Structure formats: C-alpha cells, structure tokens
Amino acid sequence: MPQASSSKTASSRDIGIDLGTANTLVYARGHGIVLNEPSVVAVKAGTTTALAVGAEAKETIGRTPGSITAIRPLKDGVICDYEAAEEMIRHFVRKAVPGRRTRTRTRMVICVPSGVTQVERRAIVHASTRAGARTVHLIEEPMAAAIGAGLPVAEPRGSMVVDIGGGTSEVAVISLGGIVTSQSLRVGGDRLDAAIIDYVRKEHALLIGERTAEDVKVGIGSAWPVPDRPELETRTFTVRGREKVGGMPKTLELTAPDVRTALDEPVEAIIAAVRTTLEECPPELSGDVMEHGIVLTGGGALLPGLDLRMASATGIPVYVADNPLDCVALGSGRCVEDLDTLSSLLAPAKG
Ligand code: ADP
Ligand code: MG
Question: What's domain 6-144+327-345's architecture?
Fold first, then answer.
C-alpha cells in the first residue's frame, strides 16, 4: 500500500465509517466516535435536493408533507438510492472532518456487509470518493464488529460474531484475521418492526406506522422471557393508530408477551442463520465457538432475551458485546488507528 506512508501529516484526519442501514457512525483517528446519526436523508419530492440529513431528517419520517420525502439510502444493507447515499456520506464527512483541504487528504475505512456484490462495493467507493476521500478501504462488517467487540480475530481460534443491524444480520466465524464462513440475511431490526405492524393489523385491525412499531420494540420487545428481570414481562405500551375499517384514530394497549409473539418469526430466522453457519463451519472452529461462545453486536443485540433464546437453541453460550451499537465503528476505528500495519485485514478498494 504505497499510499499509506506519506499521508500522516499533522492535518490529515483519517476516518472509519460504519455506514449502517439504520445509523451511520464516524470514527476519527485520535478522537474516537465523533458522529452518530440516523442514516436518513429528507429530499424535496421528485428532486435530489437534500433538505435535511441525519437526526433532523429522521424526525420527518412518516410526518412529511407531500413535498418532502424521507429516504433511507441503505434500505437492505446496500445502497438502494445512490444519490441520497452520496449526499449523506458527503454531509457526514463534512461534519466529521472540518476543512476542505483536510478532507482531500482523508483516508477512509468503510464497513460493508459481507454479502455485498462487486457493483455495490464500487458504488460505496465511488460515493465516498466523490464525498472527498483520498483513499477508501472497505472492511467487512462482521470483521469490524468482531474487532470492536474485542474478539481475538488474529488468533488461530474460531470466534463467532452475530451483528444484528437495521436491514441485515451478519453471522460470521472468524479465525486468523479472516472470515472463514458467513451468512448475511436481510432480516434485522426493520423486519422486527414490520412484524409488529403486521401483528397489530391482523390481531387488532389497527394500522400503525414504522416509527411507532420501533418504539414498541425498543420499549417492551423481547425474544424470550428473562428470569432475572421479571419486571419486563408486565410492561405495556399504548399505541395510537388508525382503524383498518373506518379509518378512525384509535389507541390500543400492547403487552410484552404480545410483542414477543409478534417478533417470533424474524427472531427464529436469525437463529436459523446461526445454526446454518455453525453447520458450515470446520469442526475445529465450531469447537472453539462451543467453548468460547457467540458474541452479539448491533442494535438488535439489545433485544432482551435474544441471547438466552439463541443459547437455548444452539446449546452454546451467547454474550452481548459492551456497547453493541458502537462495535462496528470501534472496529473500523481500530483499523484507522493502525491503517499502516493492519493492511492485511483490508482490501484496498478500487473506484
Ligand atoms: P445498522 O448497522 O443497520 O445501522 P444498528 O446496529 O445501528 O443498525 O441497529 C439499529 C437497529 O437496532 C434498529 O432497527 C433499532 O430499532 C434496533 N434497536 C436499537 N435499540 C434497540 C433495543 N433496545 N432493542 C431492540 N432493538 C433495538
Ligand atoms: Mg451495523
């Protein structure tokens, strides 16, 4: 990597970006996580003019007048709206790296889901280069998640990480600095929200929005009863929606067991992917995973009881990483701090 040696000038500011479907985090070399905002862009309908990006734009979801559209440029873990993605990356980079001249020297490490195609990779590199990057390296998300969760990725020992984001979940077994086997499934937090919307529509003939469904999930959702926290079982959440028939506004009280029923199917899909990955894993490495356990990262790791349910289904201990929402950004940050020495973990990306 010839570009690595000369660029460490006083004003260079190398960054790692966790370009998530739900949240984008930016890690700046020597500073830590400097930005954490929803991956949302509000644009004027029918144009590409961004009116707001990030937290400000998320406020508008489901509440926009006809003239404004709130776009999530990375719907299923990949860029689905190229222009909005580029606008978003540019906005966040500008916020995280002040000074135009500094930005032109910025080296970026960007996390991508392990399942992305070559075309999708190229789209991300292109968008980042247009946003001002001098060089762009891509790192696979499960690798970044594992590094950020403190797993010994470089050792000859199998480590399993399950990163549950908004659009996708990534399951991977890592050993000797590489991903040995992995699965990327398009089931994540968004699918859990959709399952709550479906449940409320089918069982109670009430229509609720995505924001409300996410609030329900974060408020009282669970994947399995948690014996140490019996208070979770008695929680309720009052939702406002619109009656399917008649269209009148109505409120409804949901209970924690209701929501667990609603979440059953997507939760099972994530657990099934863990099983498949274990089956595909070379026996020595799955033995390591049996011994050392599975580590959960990403926002979905915060769903109470998911660890217990996965442990019961697989017979393997499951741990939730510290600060699961930050793991991927911290892992990319580790690469940024050691951009010169960790190059073997990173494939230099071509635009
Ligand atoms: P991405 O990497 O795709 O941006 P994140 O790792 O940031 O995703 O996780 C975002 C997802 O985590 C969202 O779907 C959000 O609803 C979900 N989430 C956040 N907090 C919780 C929680 N306490 N319980 C369940 N899900 C949560
Ligand atoms: Mg993520």
Answer: 2-Layer Sandwich (3.30)
Look up the CATH number of domain 156-187+265-324.
Answer: 3.30.420.40
Predicted confidence band at 339 (pLDDT cuts at 50, 70, 90)? Answer: confident
pTM: 0.92
In short, whether 38's Cβ falls inside 6 Å of ligand 1 is: no
The pLDDT tens digits of the residues spanning 217-271 come to 999 999 999 999 999 999 999 999 999 999 999 999 999 999 999 999 999 999 9
Nearest CA to ligand 1 atom 19: 299
Q: Is 148 in the pocket of ligand 1 (CB under 6 A)?
A: no
**272 Cβ contact list (under 8 Å, min separation 6):** none
Query: What's the Cα-to-Cα distance from 66 to each of 32, 59, 61, rounded to whole Å?
Result: 39, 15, 12
What residue's CA is closest to ligand 1, atom 8? 165
Ligand 1, residues 139, 214, 226: which to mutate, most atoms within 8 A of Cβ? 214
Q: Give the separation between CA 91 and CA 24, rounded to whole angstroms.
A: 11
Domain boundaries, the chain: 6-144+327-345, 156-187+265-324, 189-262
CATH code reported for the domain at 189-262: 3.90.640.10
